[in-house]
Amino acid sequence: MLLEPGTVALVTGASKGIGAACAIDLAAEGATVVVNYHGDAQGAAQTVATIEAAGGRAVAIQADVADEAAVKDMFARVRREFGRLDVLVNNAGRSIDKAMPMLSRDDFENVMATNATGVFLCCREAARLMSMAGRGSIVNISSISTHGGPVVSNYAASKAAVTAFSKSIAAELAIRNVRVNVVSPGYVETKLTSVMHPSARRVVLDRTALNRSARPEEIAHVVTFLASDKASFITGAVIDADGGASIGQVISPGRARNEGLDDDRSGPRAARGA
C-alpha cells in the first residue's frame, strides 16, 4: 500500500473520467475516499460501488465546488465523519469550447468559477484541516491546454490559473508540511474526448510522442504517487502526464511513417555517411 492506514482522501469531480479513476486508485492504495460530485449522482454511486466491491471504503458527497457555502459544508462533513483530511485531489472541471469572439462573459466566468475558483475554495478548506494536523498533500489537475490552442481560451486560462495558484500556495503551505503539486494531463480517453472527430483526434495523437491517448488510470497513478509519502520531497512541481506532447517538435510514429523518418538510414549516422 502506498498510503498510510487511516488516510482520508477527497476527490472532486469523481463521478467519472479521471476523477473516478483517482478515487478508485487511492482507495486501492488504502485510502478512505470522499467521492465528490455535482450533478452525476449515478456516476458517483458507481465509483463508490467499485471501491466497495474491491474491499475499500468510500462515501459520496454532493457539492458544487464553485459554491462557497457548499464547499464549506462538504469539508465540515468530512471533519465530522472522519476527523481528518490527508489528501485532496482537485479534479472537478468544465469547459465551454468556442472561438474567443463567440464567448460570452458568462461562458468565461462559469468556466473560471469551477476550474479556478473551485480549486481555491477547496484548497483553502483543505489547508485549514491539514494545517491542524501538520501534514497533507494536495494534487491539482491542470491541462496541456495551458500551452494554448484554438477554441479553448477560457479553459486554458482557468487551468493556467490552477498551475500558478498551486505553485504559490506550495511555497506558502510548506511550513505547515502540506505539499501541493500539479498533474497536467494530455489527451485522455474519457466520454468527453470520445466524441472528437477522427481527424481532430489524429492531429492530437500525431503531436504526442507516444502516439496514443492515456487511460484515466494512468493519470490516477501519478496522482496517487504525489499524494503518498513516496513523493515526500516533491512540492510545487508540475508533472506533465501527456505522453510527450509538451516536448515540442515530437517525432511520433504517425509522423515518422508519413515523413519516412522510421527508416534507420535517415538518422544522424546516415547524414554523416556512417
CATH architecture: 3-Layer(aba) Sandwich
**Could you give me the name of the CATH homologous superfamily?**
NAD(P)-binding Rossmann-like Domain
Q: What summary fits the major beta sheet? A: 7 strands, parallel
The helix-and-strand class reads: alpha/beta
CATH topology: Rossmann fold
Distance between the termini: 51 Å
Number of helices: 9
Question: Could you characterize what this model shows?
Answer:
InterPro entries: KR_dom (IPR057326), NAD(P)-bd_dom_sf (IPR036291), Sc_DH/Rdtase_CS (IPR020904), SDR (IPR050259), SDR_fam (IPR002347). Keywords: Oxidoreductase. It holds the Pfam family adh_short_C2. Belongs to the short-chain dehydrogenases/reductases (SDR) family. Residues 256-267 have a biased composition (Basic and acidic residues). With 274 residues, the protein is of the alpha/beta class. The chain has one domain: 3-Layer(aba) Sandwich (Rossmann fold), CATH 3.40.50.720. 45% of the residues lie in helices and 14% in strands. It has helices at residues 17-28, 41-53, 68-82, 105-133, 153-173, 198-206, 216-227, 253-259, 268-271; strands at 8-11, 32-37, 57-62, 87-90, 136-141, 178-185, 238-241. The protein has a seven-stranded parallel β-sheet with strand order 3-2-1-4-5-6-7, sandwiched between helices. It is globular and about 55 Å long. Residues 265-274 have low confidence and may be disordered.
Brief overview, please?
With 274 residues, this protein is of the alpha/beta class.
Task: For the structure shown, list the relevant keywords.
7-stranded parallel beta sheet, 274 residues, single chain, Rossmann fold, globular, alpha/beta
